[in-house]
Amino acid sequence: MLFTEWIQEVYTSYLTAIYEMADPRTAEWLLVKSPLYPSLILLCYVYFCVNSRTLTARMPAYKLRPVLILYNLFMVILSSYMVVEFFLTAYLLNYTLTCQSMEYDSSALPMRPISSGEPTRSSTWSCTPTMDLVQLDHICSSIYGGRSILQYCNW
C-alpha cells in the first residue's frame, strides 16, 4: 500500500467517524457539528499556556478573589443541578448500572440530561463546567516546570 493510499484511507475513516457515525440529535450543536471549533479552542488554549509569561509581563495584577468566589459558587450550583438532572432522568428512564443500549429517540426525556434540562429547544448548547482557574494553573505549572500563572494576581 502506498503512502498516499494510506492517507486516503485514514481520511475516509476520519470522515466516516466524524460525520456518518455522529449522533443526529446533536448534529447542529455549536461545538459538535465540526471538529474545527474544539480544535481552534485547544490551539488557543495551548498558545496562551505557552506564552502566558510574555503576555502577562506588562499587565497589572488584578484583584480577582470576589470574581473567583462567585464563579466557583456558580460552578457548584450548576454541577449540582446537572447531577440532579442526570439521576432524575436515569430514574425516570429505568437505566441500569450495567451496559445500557444506545437510544436515538429525540423525545424530551432522553434528551434531558444532555440539554441541561431544557429539551424543548431545537438547538441546545450543553453547559458543562470544565475546570476552574486553580486546576488550569496546576496543569500549566506542571507543563512549564512549576511556574504558576496565578503569581500575577493579587489575592
UniProtKB/TrEMBL annotation:
Enzyme Commission (EC) number: 2.3.1.199
Residue intervals passing through the bilayer: 36-56, 68-93
Keywords tagged on the record: Fatty acid biosynthesis, Fatty acid metabolism, Lipid biosynthesis, Lipid metabolism, Membrane, Transferase, Transmembrane, Transmembrane helix
Topology class, membrane: Multi-pass membrane protein
Localization, UniProt: Membrane
Enzyme class: transferase
Lyase recorded as keyword: no
Superkingdom field: Eukaryota
InterPro entries: ELO_fam (IPR002076)
Catalytic activity: a very-long-chain acyl-CoA + malonyl-CoA + H(+) = a very-long-chain 3-oxoacyl-CoA + CO2 + CoA
Keyword Lipid metabolism: yes
Family: Belongs to the ELO family.
Name listed for the protein in its UniProt record: Elongation of very long chain fatty acids protein
Organism: Clavelina lepadiformis (Light-bulb sea squirt)
